[in-house]
Amino acid sequence: MPSLDQMPSQIKPRLAAINQQHLLHFYASLAPAQQIALIDQIASLDLESLPKLISEYVLTKPQLKLPAKLAPARVYPNDPTDKARGGEHAWDQAAARVRGEALIRAGKVAAFVVAGGQGSRLGFEGPKGCYPAGSVTNKPLFQIFAEQILATQRRYSTIVPWYVMTSPLNHDQTTSFFRQHNYWGLSPEHVRFFQQGVAPSIDMKTGKVLLAAKHEVATNPDGHGGCVRALHVSGSLADMQKRGVEHLCYFQVDNPLVRVIDPIFLGLHVGDGKGGIATSGEMSSKMVAKAGPEEKVGVFVLADGKTEVLEYSDMPADLQNARDSRGNLLYNAGSIAIHAISVEFLSRLATDARFTLPWHRAEKKIPHVNLETGETVSPSANNGVKLEKFIFDALALCKQSLVYETLREEEFGPIKNATGVDSVVTSKALQTSRAAKWLEAAGVSVPRKTDGAPDCTLELSALTALAPEELRGAKLPKAIERGTTIAL
Ligand code: UTP
Partners of 287 in the beta sheet? Predict the structure, then answer.
């Protein structure tokens, strides 16, 4: 271990070689512990790869070249005999369910939430998973998922381990939140937390890495795609292999409607080439029909024959608006960031020295220290670039990959923003609508307004029903009174 005085002299030439010496601007004025922290942090960054990243992603905006052959992705419809599509994509859903349930029962399935993001749009103090999301109870997102996992374990008499990806920004708060709530009844030995990596945040005009404080480089979590490496280096993949887990149900922390463990999706994902289902098992995805051409979601496409996600911002307007012969949007398969991923596929990627996912740039307002005044600046306009990797870029590395259609009202109510689109208000309304639909299917009368929306506020815990069929025969009120608020 070099002495304190020696450390800057080791780091200095490396920083000088990449033109980032300013990171030591305040070094001499720092307390010894801060000096050590700063040097440790700088040494942990992949300094040598920075110049290329900065010139390709920060000082210029990389332009995506559309693939030579672009077509809509093949989708397995939610209704497998879908007459509106001529039944041309008929598939054996019952067989998929049986296969998926067998995997769950055998303990071969784990839940995996990516919860390392900064949640800057929501502006909530603390990890997003702690956000009060339940439409009636305000229970936190993490609890909503925990109850689903618990209910799945009970239903199938099995263990569903839960892997939770955090980041250095929110790891301690996340783990203490779980402890504080006794893991909502889950056994701590089956919940495993691991941290993703970070990337330096960079001034978008100068290409200089920003300082968050005089003794701290500004960094951001390296994107949900950072999970592939993080799963490996944290020992989580090895833990899965030891437990006999073969497939992960990947979901994001902001969608309380997600069906965390979905037997039909899993059974499709491990398709065996029979019943109209291709052989797969590497990485599969769920989609919902886009709300309209302008909806800002990525779309599943066939790019030179491979299933991939084309980001909204990369899709030219003529493709966004294109219609098929039935008048439906041609590129209609909106990605909702729900995947089934095989442990074998992840291990193959993570242990391949050549493996890397591409970087994506996002312009952000990044607070930083002004080098001249030493003061912290909170910019009112975007000043920096965050570099992130996206998990859906791994789709291109699959031998084969399937896309399954789910219904928006059943499974997509994300909380991204404090108000407006995809906010807690819209998510809570969607939770009520789904609960109303499930209750009506079980014979309960639900009051509705003239526009068809439920005239009440409802929340259904997964411990009451994981799926609508579980409500049949349950003890339920005959009717919900107009204007009431009920959690079941
Ligand atoms: P978002 O793209 O919505 O980003 O993440 P975010 O950081 O949560 O929110 P904003 O953009 O700052 O408002 C989608 C999912 O991916 C996870 C998030 O926690 C969320 O579940 N994520 C995102 C990570 O786990 N790590 C990251 O580095 C980024």
Answer: 335, 405
